[in-house]
Amino acid sequence: MKKTINYLLISAALATTALAQAQPEYLSFQTEDEANNIEIFSQASPAVVYVTNTTLVRRSRFSRNVEEIPQGTGTGFVWDQNGLIVTNYHVVQGANRIMIRLQDQSSWEAEVVGVAPDKDLALLRINAPEEILTPLPLGDSAELKVGRKVIAIGNPFGLDTTLTVGVVSALGREITSLTNRTIRDVIQTDASINPGNSGGPLLNSLGQLVGVNTQILSPSGANIGIGFSIPVNTVKRIIPQLIEFGREIRPILGISNLDDSISAQNNIDGVVVAEVTNGLGSADAGLVGLEQDKQGNIILGDVIVGIEGITIRNSDDLLNALEQYQAGDVVEVLTRRRNQDEMSFSVVLSEPL
Q: At 232, which CATH number?
């Protein structure tokens, strides 16, 4: 009996030793997904910056003295080694002073290079040496598919350089900017995006930038798994314009149009041409604006209802359609003349005046 017990104890000890040998040590073990997350964070986090926005306020209504107070914080990332920093427009809106803190904890005052409020984007510049600036590699947001992994890095609630992981939940979403313009082709993700994440990068599984985190959909204001990012292809198109002009540039048809509210009050679906500018594309193509008869009544001219096959219901649709083109391009403009007969015009787009 004693020999049997000893045999069992020896067998159990040997089995325990074999099991311990078979199990890898946690410090040396990583799943493929964990290894990918760790690698991306290691490579990308040096590019992520902390943005602080301050403003000036009077100490009291009876005093001329002003003081600088924090107005908000957010996230940004290094665009290039020339010191360009990308963030959201709403992160720096109304700022008197903007400070950027890099991953080495050095702080730099930023100047605003340009803003695109309609796309909630801002481009800043800091005078930091190249060797401490690590730009993110750029991806292609057109290659994303629903279900692909994405990683968000930001500073939620002031907690520096936080990583969250999720998937692309949907593509082609639409959100509204601070200017009430529609931002289209937005990426929806369930990677946690909370206050402070705004302006931070959304990365693919290669660590490439595919979006700029901008908004969440939440009744409480905290993350519930519905976040939105501006696609990097939109960012790549706008950044050169901000560098050159300080604002987003889109070509024009050479018209002025009625406010959408007036069109809606008169049950008109489309963009009402109020006036065409002589010497520009629409006038040369033959579009006509509002006219007045002998009795002083206003007569409707052309109502734009389509651009290159895209339905135009309002001025927001029109501006979004024109953003896809450059000055000098020729576009087919579909109108309803007098709100009745459909007509088509080939219009040469012009530089903004």
A: 2.40.10.10
> Does the active-site annotation cover 90?
yes
Rounding to the nearest 10 degrees, give the CA dihedral for residues 186, 189, 192, 195. 10
Of 90, 190, 192, 317, which residue is the catalytic one?
A: 90
Active-site residue, 120 included = yes
What kind and span of H or E run contains 239? helix 232-245
State the average pLDDT over residues 211-225.
Answer: 74
pLDDT of residue 321: 93
Q: Which of 118, 120, 302, 317 is catalytic?
A: 120
Q: Which residue in the list 177, 198, 282, 315 is annotated as catalytic? A: 198
Give the pair of three-digit tokens for residue 50: 């902390």
Please say if the pLDDT value at position 123 is more than 90: yes
pTM of the model: 0.82
Provide the domain limits for residue 28: 2-43
pLDDT in tens, 43-55: 999 999 999 988 7
Chain mean position to CA 88? 7
260 has catalytic annotation: no
